[in-house]
């Protein structure tokens, strides 16, 4: 028992020094000697996860949650490991165990929201990201994630509100303006989409894909000349965009241009 305690302490000391690679061997030896020690299993799993050794981390973290089903840290680490392997529905179940016990663990809520979105559980994702934005209202990424989750539910008006919050926090982020434009296009509001894409283009004028998106909004509004100009710019900046060339040809035919 003393050797196990010493090995666990050595592993913890290495981890505290950001030497996770060195921590693995003593932790594995400790777990081999005491496989029913939940803390050791959790520590080993978390260390392996930090090193990106997800397949090796999963059994240790699963065992930790079995041995200590009230251990929030073990459930969070297990959920993250599952998410790393694309097992998002399983990750949601694990992360819910953590957030049900500690709803103000925002790191767990973020992870839960991401996996819920990935597994199509948009209502749960909305709840998770709303919790985060209530606590950290200056987190633009959380507002963006909330907007996407609301969009997944088809709640486009409230999705737009969330994206506008994100833009307010990062007004110089062209991608955020473009994402709002995409939302407006989905909502069949091309005039609003055009305004958002113009803001995006104003911030990243050398991005051909943004000009192509602007052109599509202008085309939807019946602004053939403007659309042609946008598609021409898109093809000049990004000649690999096949869709922009197709749209340019259509725009030219629409106005009878060569």
Secondary-structure topology with pairs:
Layout: H1 2-16, H2 20-33, H3 38-50, H4 54-67, H5 72-84, H6 88-101, H7 106-118, H8 122-135, H9 140-152, H10 156-169, H11 174-186, H12 190-203, H13 208-220, H14 224-237, H15 242-255
Account of the 3D structure:
The protein is mostly helical and 258 residues long. Helix content is 79%, strand content 0%. It contains 15 helices and no strands. The chain has helices at residues 2-16, 20-33, 38-50, 54-67, 72-84, 88-101, 106-118, 122-135, 140-152, 156-169, 174-186, 190-203, 208-220, 224-237, 242-255. Helix 8 (122-135) packs antiparallel against helix 9 (140-152). The protein is elongated, with a radius of gyration of 25 Å.
Question: How many DSSP H or I helices?
Answer: 15
Q: Which residues form runs of ≥5 with pLDDT under 50? A: none
Distance between the termini: 84 Å
Structural class category: mainly alpha
- Cα Rg: 25 Å
């Amino acid at each position: 028992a003393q050797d196990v305690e010493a090995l666990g302490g050595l592993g913890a000391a290495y981890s505290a020094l950001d030497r996770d690679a060195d921590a693995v061997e003593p932790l594995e030896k400790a777990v081999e000697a005491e496989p029913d020690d939940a803390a050791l299993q959790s520590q080993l799993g978390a260390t392996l996860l930090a090193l990106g050794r997800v397949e090796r981390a999963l059994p240790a973290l699963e065992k930790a949650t079995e041995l200590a089903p009230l251990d929030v840290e073990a459930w969070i680490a297990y959920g993250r490991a599952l998410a790393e392997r694309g097992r998002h529905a399983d990750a949601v179940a694990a992360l819910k165990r953590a957030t049900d016990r500690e709803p103000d663990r925002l790191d767990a809520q973020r992870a839960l929201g991401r996996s819920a979105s990935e597994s199509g559980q948009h209502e749960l994702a909305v709840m998770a990201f709303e919790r985060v934005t209530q606590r950290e209202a200056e987190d633009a990424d959380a507002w963006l994630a909330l907007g996407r989750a609301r969009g997944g539910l088809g709640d486009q008006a409230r999705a737009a509100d969330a994206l506008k919050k994100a833009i307010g926090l990062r007004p110089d982020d062209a991608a955020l303006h473009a994402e709002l434009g995409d939302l407006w296009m989905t909502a069949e509001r091309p005039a609003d989409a055009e305004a958002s894409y113009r803001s995006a283009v104003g911030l990243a004028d050398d991005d051909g894909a943004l000009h192509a998106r602007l052109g599509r909004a202008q085309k939807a509004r019946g602004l053939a000349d403007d659309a042609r100009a946008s598609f021409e710019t898109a093809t000049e900046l990004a000649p690999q965009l096949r869709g922009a060339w197709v749209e340019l040809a259509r725009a030219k035919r629409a106005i009878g241009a060569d």
